[in-house]
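Lay summary. Proteins are chains of building blocks that fold into shapes, and those shapes determine what they do. In this project we predict the shape from the chain. Here is one chain we studied, written as its sequence of building blocks.
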Amino acid sequence: MLEGYDRVSFRFDGTTHDVYCGGSGPPVIVIHEIPGITPEVLRFAGRVKEAGFRVYLPHLFGEPGRPVSAGYLARSMLHACISREFKVLARNEASPVTIWLRALAREALRECGGPGVGALGMCLTGNFALAMMIDPAVQAPVLSQPSLPFPISKSHRRALHLAPEQLEVVKQRVRDGCPVLGLRFTNDFTSPRERFERLREELGDGFEAIEIDSSPGNPHGISPRAHSVLTMDLVDRDGHPTKQALERVLAFFRARLLAPSR
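And here is the predicted shape, written in a compact code that computers can read:
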């Protein structure tokens, strides 16, 4: 299932993770969701490769290639909750693993060249692309159903999983011309509406939000429980909102990474 990818070990500041690399072109880091690098994550990564990019798939937890199951999902979630690399309830602090991810972005840019690196996080890792913007190597950040911090209170639902000084750097980068793309389903309580409202408040027109109607009785029959825009809940059919979201992500990468840096 991981054919077409080379596995390398990347170490930075005492932290080591395997990274699966495949394709050619400007670099895009695809940070997998819970429970890991599933077949659906690989399907999305394949679309990114086909669009003309070199994909870097860091392996942060789970078993690469293993299909989703309830037990596997629960074990991966437990691992993330107790790992020192993740701070799932932190409102004003990024998870420590984002430091390693920023180093990976610099290495990917060194290897591939070009104007910059794309970074896409999903679910538990969704906000990580925002934290990675601290490094100027990241030129195309995408937040797909960002779920940290877990929305256990009103303040958690609005939080961005960033330290205040990091948010100021992100806002300056947006003012300097680096936009942010965000995706979510409207009925997804794990990636709450309030978080996107906060992103609009902080980033203004520099934040492009794609919010797909998943309310009961919606025109496309999307489940009110839909969560994973680009993987589990993607409907690969022309005209479907999730397919349009996928196409917008690829267009965003093309515009930001196949053109001179702004």
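What the prediction tells us: The mean pLDDT is 96.
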